[in-house]
Amino acid sequence: MISVEEARERLLTPLRPLGTEYVSLSEAHGRVLAEQLRARRSQPPFAVSAMDGYAVRAADVARVPAELSVIGSVPAGQRYDGAVGPRQAVRIFTGAPVPDGADCIVIQEDTERRGDIVVVKEGAPEGRYVRPAGLDFREGAVGIAAGRRLTARDVGLAAAMNRPWLLVHRRPRVAILPTGDEVVMPGDPVGPNQIVSSNALALGALVEGLGAVAVQLPIAPDDSAALQRIAEGASGADLLLTTGGASVGDHDLVRDALGQTGLTIDFWTVAMRPGKPLMVGRFRDTLMIGLPGNPVSTLVCGLLFVKPALEHLLGLAAAEEPTLKARLAVKLRANDQRQDYLRASLTRAADGVLETAPFKVQDSSVMSLMAAADCLVIRAPHVPAAEPGDWVDIIPLAGSTGGI
């Protein structure tokens, strides 16, 4: 067995971002930017009014009340072609260009209109309520750095920068191949010795949530020829995920059957719990991760290995899953040679500290507790017993973007 850290390094080191494609801005949310996005114009492109009121010269309203002649009006989307001279004003609305000669805006609440005269009751210093040209950004400035997953905020900024098309990394295509005579898909007839499979659909949700495209392959029975035939559906995929193996032992059938048609193994078995029988290799030209058959093991390995692999392919700067410190609420026994990831609850104690309690049942087939868990408590190999009040590392689960 190899450590979790070595397994991650061996999986991720050879991976490179996929190719690029242009997408319209309306389709860019969640995609990973592959270019330094520069503004095509300044924003605002000219000085504009930030309020409804009057464009004036600050010198003319230094002493109030001040009576000014109204020489024009300018709404947003239009421009006053003249210039504001001494003791003159232009009625202006939010977003409209500030006329030449004016250097501040007096808000309408501080004025009284009398025909073509406006009485200014409260003055304004130079620059008041004027948004100068380029206040937001200048033409040519980098607004969004390459390698960023685009949020709704980024889409709005790109639109303001007049960038209708963006260069992004291609979404990885992930073929998902569940195996085993004992499993059927939800809604299909269930035999007397079968169970309903959750792995393929859970992995599909993980994959799609990370920005990749899930390609669901049929469940492969415990038959070499059938497995080989169904695996052909992974042709053209960027990543192949298998779950389960055979009745003889985890992944024995996958290794043997696919090994005859182009599978090469980099490593198999990792010193972790759940997830020991993890397998990584290549099926012809496609990266392959063989996941354990138990559903909790599948999802934990998905978080620790599939997620960073997809992040690398997407052009993201993938890092280890972020951890927090939490105070232990229960006693834990000493650990053996495998790194544990314990499903646990996470609460805020009366003193404001995060407190965690691993569930008593940690069987890797119990999906209900995986769904109920708020975090995974990490227990390094060979650590001694822990007492309530000790601090432990946790991986938060609830509400995590792209997580499980």
Describe this structure in words.
With 404 residues, the protein is of the alpha/beta class. Helix content is 17%, strand content 29%. The chain is built from 7 helices and 26 strands. The strands form 7 sheets. The protein has a 6-stranded mixed sheet with strand order 7-4-6-5-9-8, with no helix packed on it. The protein has a 6-stranded mixed sheet with strand order 16-13-17-21-20-18, with helices on both faces. A hairpin with a 2-residue loop joins strand 8 (111-114) and strand 9 (117-120). Helix 3 runs parallel beside helix 6 and helix 4 (224-231) packs across helix 5. 39% of the residues are buried. The model has no long low-confidence stretch (mean pLDDT 94).
Shape descriptor reads: elongated
The helical percent reads: 10-25%
Q: What is the multimeric organization of the chains shown?
A: single chain
The averaged pLDDT comes out at: 94
Indicate the structural class: alpha/beta
What profile does the largest beta sheet have?
A: 6 strands, mixed
Please identify which CATH superfamily of the largest domain we are dealing with: MoaB/Mog-like domain
Total of helices: 7
* Tally of structural domains: 4
